[in-house]
Structures are given as structure tokens and as C-alpha cells.
UniProtKB/TrEMBL annotation:
<protein>
    <submittedName>
        <fullName>Predicted dithiol-disulfide isomerase involved in polyketide biosynthesis</fullName>
    </submittedName>
</protein>
<dbReference type="GO" id="GO:0016853">
    <property type="term" value="F:isomerase activity"/>
</dbReference>
<keyword id="KW-0413">Isomerase</keyword>
<dbReference type="Pfam" id="PF13743">
    <property type="entry name" value="Thioredoxin_5"/>
</dbReference>
Length: 194
């Protein structure tokens, strides 16, 4: 099984495109894939986080917005990674033209077919907060800098591979060996040209 981690800035449209490409790649790969999206938070923010931060903060700045998105994503993950990934991508698309709000998040949770009542409880739960902190600890462990990147943990390789160049060409070069033999690089390029 190939473990793929996308450490992303949840407010970046470039990271959004990379997430969409990784979703497509996960269908094109010939081996089983465990795909994880991990919204990155500023390490200064992580140091001062408390479980009540979500309730006590507004979304006036990008750090607070990123924290809210990370909590929302982890709350959605309670219902499964596929729904959570769809939720996150839909939320990121919406945030390109709308302000972050509870109403927006609730609408997107409904669109992603989440149990909205449970989701609203989970987004403020201590367990969700702990899960966000665990993701940030994993990012700190795997990354030398808190920059968006992809980490690939391949059981046939000795070290985890880190990609900081997330261009289509680099994604093709990295993942082509893991694709089905019948999938030519030009077809893979078409799939990734979202």
C-alpha cells in the first residue's frame, strides 16, 4: 500500500488543485493507496491552541480560518475519508468566492452528505481538537519546514519521499511507476489537467 500525505495550506488554490490531482491519481494507481489530506497550521498558532479556541475565535485572519477549516475537516473525517476529502475540496472551492461562515460550512456538510447534527457537535469536540494536534505533530515530524508538500511512504523504499514541486510534470514523474502499465504518461497528463 502506498501512503500519500498532502500537507496543504487550506486557503491556497494551488493546494486545492493538487488535492484534486491527487484524488485523480489515486484512481489511476495500480496499487492500493491511502490518501490523507492534512491542512497545515502556523506553528505559532499550534503552540497556543486550546479546545475552546474554535468557539472563542472569529475568522478574521487566515490563521484562524485555517484552524477552523482543519477542525471542520477532522469533524467530517469521522464519517470517512472519502466524504471528508470531498467536504474539504468543496469548502475550498466555495472559499474562493465566499467568506467562511458556519452557514457555508453547514451547507457544504449537507452537500457532502454528512450527518450535519453530528458534524456540528464533532467540530467542537475535544477529540477533534486532539486529532488536529496529532496531524500537526505528524507534519512537524515529517517536514523540515511547514510548507505545502506531498509525502509518499512507499513500503518498497527506504525513506519517505517528499515532493515540494507539485507541478503536473513532477507528479507524473513521481507516480508513473505506480500506475497501471496500460496508462501512458500522456493519458495520465490528461487526467491531471484539471
Amino acid at each position: 500500500m502506498l501512503d500519500i500525505y498532502h500537507f496543504s495550506n487550506p486557503l491556497s488554490t494551488d493546494c486545492l488543485k493538487t488535492e484534486e490531482r491527487l484524488l485523480q491519481l489515486s484512481y489511476d494507481l495500480s496499487e492500493r493507496v491511502h490518501l490523507r489530506f492534512i491542512p497545515l497550521l502556523d506553528h505559532h498558532l499550534v503552540a497556543k491552541l486550546t479546545p475552546s479556541y474554535l468557539r472563542d475565535s472569529t475568522t478574521d485572519n487566515n490563521d484562524q480560518k485555517s484552524y477552523h477549516i482543519a477542525m471542520d475537516y477532522k469533524a467530517a473525517q469521522v464519517e470517512g475519508n472519502k466524504k471528508a476529502r470531498r467536504f474539504l475540496i468543496n469548502l475550498q472551492h466555495a472559499l474562493t468566492s465566499q467568506a467562511y461562515s458556519l452557514a457555508l460550512v453547514t451547507d457544504i456538510a449537507e452537500t457532502a452528505r454528512l450527518n450535519v447534527d453530528d458534524f456540528l457537535v464533532n467540530r467542537e469536540a475535544t477529540e477533534t481538537f486532539q486529532a488536529v494536534l496529532e496531524d500537526q505533530a505528524l507534519a512537524k515530524q515529517m517536514l523540515s519546514k511547514a510548507d505545502p508538500c506531498i509525502a509518499i511512504d512507499d513500503p518498497t523504499a527506504i525513506d519517505t519521499q517528499l515532493l515540494t514541486n507539485l507541478s503536473i510534470d513532477n507528479l507524473i514523474a513521481t507516480f508513473a511507476p505506480h500506475c497501471a502499465k496500460s496508462l501512458a504518461p500522456d493519458i495520465l497528463r490528461q487526467h491531471l489537467s484539471i
